[in-house]
Amino acid sequence: MDSVPYAFVDSVVELFDGKNTLFPLALEVVHPLWKTVVDLHYRNRYYNVYLSMNEKGVRLMSKNWNRRSYDDLEPIRKNRRYARILQINDSAIWGSDHWKHAKRRGADEAIKMLKTVAPQCESSSLLDSLDSGFPDSHKFLSDALSNSASFASMELSYHGQASLDLLENQIRNSPFLELVALLGEDWPEAVLPLITAFCLKGRPGHPAIMTLRDAKIVDNSCIQNLFHLWKAKGNLHFCLL
C-alpha cells in the first residue's frame, strides 16, 4: 500500500461518488496517503447551486459544503479538477441576506453560466424545483441543463410544457435517474407516458421510484398497463407511490 503512487490514489479517488463512497470513506480511512487524498477531495469537491429568478433577471449562487461559503459559480468553474455539484435548487426559500452578493443577470447570460458547470453534477445529484415561485424557471432549467447535466433524483412542481420537457430529457438521457417526485394536483395526463417510460427504466440494482404527491392522474388503466409491461419484461424494478 505504501508503494502506491500519489497520482494513482488521486485518480482513483476522483472517480468516487460522494454520497455512496467518498462521504463514508472520509470518516473511516486512516492510511496516511489515502487519508491525505480523500480529505483533499472531500474539502474541495462538493457544492450546491441555488437559483433565484423573477421578472428582473436571474441570480445564481454556489455554496461550498465544508466551508459554508457562498459565492457565484466561478469557484466551481475554476475548480473543475475537484468541484462537483450535489444539488441544483431553484426553490425560493432563502432570505435576502444570502443573495446580497449575487449579481442579477439576464436569462441568456445565466443559462450560459449554468450550462458551463452543469457537467460537473455528481452522479447522485438532485434537481430540486418544488417551490420555485416563478413560472419561467423550468424553461430556464430546461435550456440550461438539457444534454449537459444528469441527475439521480428530481423533485418538480408543474409549470407548463417546460416542466414536461425538463422531465422527459432526464428520463431519456440520465443513466443515474432513480427517483422522481412530482408535487401538486395540476400535472396533466400528458405526463403519463413519461411516468411509464421512467418505470420501464427500472432494473434490479437500479430501481425507478416515482412519487406523485397529490396528483390524481394515475388511474386503473395506467396501473393495469404497467402491470402488463412488468409481466412481459420480467425484470422490471419500479415503485409508483
What key phrases describe this protein's structure?
alpha/beta, single chain, flat, 9 helices, 10 strands
Characterize this entry briefly.
This protein has 241 residues and is an alpha/beta fold. The chain has helices spanning 6-14, 18-28, 32-45, 74-78, 107-117, 137-145, 161-173, 192-199, 220-233; strands at residues 46-54, 57-64, 70-71, 84-89, 104-105, 121-129, 153-156, 179-183, 208-213, 238-240.
Description:
There is one protein chain. The protein is of the alpha/beta class and 241 residues long. It has a domain at 45-177. Helix content is 39%, strand content 22%. It is built from nine helices and ten strands. It has helices at 6-14, 18-28, 32-45, 74-78, 107-117, 137-145, 161-173, 192-199, 220-233; strands at 46-54, 57-64, 70-71, 84-89, 104-105, 121-129, 153-156, 179-183, 208-213, 238-240. Strands 1, 2, 3, 4, 5, 6, 7, 8, 9 and 10 form a ten-stranded mixed β-sheet that branches. The model has no long low-confidence stretch (mean pLDDT 85).
Class from helix and strand fractions? alpha/beta
Spans of 5+ residues with little confidence (pLDDT < 50)? Answer: none
**Helix count, DSSP H or I runs of 4 or more residues:** 9
- Describe the sheet with the most strands: 10 strands, mixed
> Which outline best applies?
flat
Strand content: 15-25%
